[in-house]
UniProtKB/TrEMBL annotation:
It comes from the Bacteria. This is Abasic site processing protein. It comes from Sphingobium yanoikuyae (Sphingomonas yanoikuyae). Its EC number is 3.4.-.-. It is an enzyme of class 3 (hydrolase). Keywords: Covalent protein-DNA linkage, DNA damage, DNA-binding, Hydrolase, Lyase, Protease.
Amino acid sequence: MCNLYTVRKSAAEVAAHFGVADPTQSNAPEEVYPGYPGVVMREEAGTRLMQSMVWGFPLRLKGMKPEAKPKPVNNIADLSKNMWIGLARKPQWRCVIPVTQFAEAEGEKGRKTRTWFGVKDQPVFGWAGLWRISDEWGPVYSGVMTDCNEAIRPVHDRMPVLLMPDEYDRWLHGDFDDALAFQNRCFPHDLITMERTDEPWVKRKAAANAELLL
């Protein structure tokens, strides 16, 4: 499960990487948490654009009070599930999430630290995602997950579905079988970088949100 990632590049640098002509200025922070703003790349009428959205599809759990804030479903475990399949079958609801690093928690409970992962020779890389318009938060997005590779296995058994630049078009335009193929493949372990740190996992309230994987 991925509940924290960074975008430590300027809007112009991110736009240039994804072939977007008009960089979008966003209020998204460098560290992105579930339920808070992030930026995605999607296509509309054949044109790539960057758009600010909330990370996580709002989900209201049974027994929640009407005034309670929905929980953000920020990770997608299985594109074939009812919650996702309708969107995954339609390329217009696919997006690519810009990432510079993503983090997993490592260590003893109460003393967990951040271990950061990246992609070699890719200062910015893509994470396959889906988006939609929600009544609660407007445009929202969630990232597709898959089984981990050997580089990530010491820390976690899941990882984001990572995309290389020459794969963005296939994710955005491919059929449902193409989408499933990305989720079912094993991303090359030798392309992953890992940085263990002594940074506390929970630094602020946003990181302590209830994150959901469906």
